[in-house]
């Protein structure tokens, strides 16, 4: 006979197990199995998670360290360039050579180049690190890179002027074609440089206007502020003046002019008389030339021209030969020879008769004409 089921009233006894209703065992079993599956999934994947997290941390740290190292190397390179510029300026004895080296300009150019290099290095390093992090996360980079390539091509075609301006600005700065304060002629505009950018150059024109010129549009640049400038004066004297005396006066006046302030700083070489530039019927033009500080040629030219004018006035040098006096007026003609007799004065002359009006025909002549066929 089957044994009867034992009903336990005291669940604390060893032989007694609590009895649960059959409908309550299902949810407990499902929770237990889900917990076991989650624990097994965590046990199987926690190592890969930790490994991936460590990879991402290492990639980010390496990117930051590499970026800091590259920026430090760029700063050292810029500092070295600036220091070499200062040493070269110290070793240069002449004032002209010092301006050609121009340490301040080289420092500005080095700072601009350093800024561009730091930006490019940061973008390249951190961009590569970001792609590596996305790869570790599990993002498929093939579609992303393909989309980036297509977007880059489209951007290159759509913004080619912007790219051209940027590249032209980079090369202008690297080659030190001009800087702030230079007087330049860019073809489309002439003026003093106010700002040099990677895309646009700002100029102040002679009338005070401000020009914004895209670097990609510049085809030629004439810099009047690098090295030195040349002051040229064309001196006009009379044709009969002694050229040796005139040349001696010019050199004496220029020597005294060069010893005065501020012209002693603006004039870098003695004034030279190059010789006769042109000859005409009443004048001779001599060309005088001097090497000056950059962008100061016009100022020196005006001052030197005024000084030579005062010296010529004191020495009695004529700037142009006077015209010869007109010949004395001829004696008045006699009454008989004052004027030839007019042809109209003699009524019987052929010219007088030819000038008479044609008289109207007489009645006889009219009748005679009327009988004609």
From TrEMBL:
- A single Pfam family it belongs to is MS_channel_1st
Which of UniProt's keywords are assigned here?
Answer: Cell membrane, Membrane, Transmembrane, Transmembrane helix
**Record domain Mechanosensitive ion channel MscS: where:** 161-225
This protein's membrane topology, according to the annotation, is: Multi-pass membrane protein
Q: InterPro entries this protein is in?
A: LSM_dom_sf, MS_channel_1st, MS_channel_C, MscS_beta-dom_sf, MscS_channel_2nd, MscS_channel_C_sf, MscS_channel_TM-2, YbiO_bact
**Disordered: where is this region?**
324-373
Coiled-coil stretches: none
Subcellular localization, as worded in the UniProt entry: Cell membrane
Q: Does the keyword Membrane apply?
A: yes
What's this protein's family per the entry? Belongs to the MscS (TC 1.A.23) family.
**Name used for this protein in its record:** Mechanosensitive ion channel family protein
**Organism encoding this protein:** Kitasatospora acidiphila
């Amino acid at each position: 006979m089957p044994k009867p089921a034992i009903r336990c009233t005291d669940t604390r006894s060893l032989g007694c197990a609590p009895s649960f209703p059959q409908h309550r065992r299902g949810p407990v079993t499902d929770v237990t199995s889900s917990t076991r599956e989650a624990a097994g999934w965590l046990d199987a994947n926690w190592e890969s998670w930790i490994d991936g997290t460590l990879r991402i941390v290492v990639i980010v740290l390496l990117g930051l360290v590499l970026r800091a190292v590259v920026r430090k190397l760029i700063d050292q390179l810029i500092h070295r360039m600036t220091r070499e510029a200062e040493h070269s300026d110290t070793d240069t004895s002449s004032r002209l050579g010092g301006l050609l080296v121009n340490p301040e300009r080289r420092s500005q150019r080095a700072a601009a180049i350093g800024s561009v290099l730091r930006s490019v290095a940061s973008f390249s390093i951190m961009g590569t690190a970001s792609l590596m992090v996305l790869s570790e996360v599990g993002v498929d980079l093939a579609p992303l890179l393909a989309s980036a390539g297509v977007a880059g091509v489209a951007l290159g075609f759509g913004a080619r002027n912007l790219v051209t301006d940027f590249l032209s600005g980079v090369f202008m700065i690297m080659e030190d074609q001009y800087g702030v304060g230079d007087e330049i002629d860019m073809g489309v505009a002439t003026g003093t440089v106010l700002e040099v950018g990677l895309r646009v150059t700002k100029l102040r024109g002679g009338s005070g206007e401000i020009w914004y010129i895209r670097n990609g549009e510049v085809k030629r640049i004439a810099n009047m502020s690098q090295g030195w400038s040349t002051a040229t004066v064309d001196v006009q004297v009379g044709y009969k003046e002694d050229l040796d005396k005139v040349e001696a006066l010019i050199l004496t006046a220029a020597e005294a002019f060069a010893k005065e302030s501020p012209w002693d700083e603006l004039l870098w070489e003695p004034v030279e008389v190059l010789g006769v530039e042109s000859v005409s019927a009443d004048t001779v033009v001599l060309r005088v030339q001097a090497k000056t500080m950059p962008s100061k040629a016009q100022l020196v030219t005006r001052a030197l021209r005024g000084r030579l004018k005062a010296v010529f006035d004191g020495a009695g040098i004529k700037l142009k030969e006077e015209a010869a006096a007109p010949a004395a007026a001829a004696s008045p003609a006699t009454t008989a020879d004052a004027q030839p007799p007019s042809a109209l004065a003699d009524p019987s002359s052929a010219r007088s008769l030819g000038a008479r009006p044609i008289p109207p025909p007489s009645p006889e002549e009219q009748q005679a004409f009327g009988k004609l066929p």
